[in-house]
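Throughout our pipeline, every protein is held as a single compact record rather than as scattered files. Nothing more is needed to write down the fold, since each code stands for a local backbone conformation. The record that follows is passed on verbatim for readers who wish to inspect the format.
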Amino acid sequence: MLSRGFANGVDGNALEGKYWRSVVTTGEPETAYHQDGLNRYTMADIMRLFELIAQMCRIYWMTPMCAYWARRQPKEVMRHFARAYGEWLTALLPNGGL
């Protein structure tokens, strides 16, 4: 999908104007995603490569949704996350997106 000539490069514009939003759940708490944490990087740092790919392909990058330590969150917290995700899926996108 991200091959040169299709998604980027000369005549590579098949994904231009599309939207990219990552929805992530982790097995660790948010404190693990810091320079001094277990994973050594913030989630923003981890997602930076994907953001760069989106930029190269002229895709609109949207702030990721992240549920840290998802398996240990109370059901109500995960219901709220699922509801927010569902609302985002049904909402109109900016810049004329569908």
The helical segments are 43-56, 75-90.
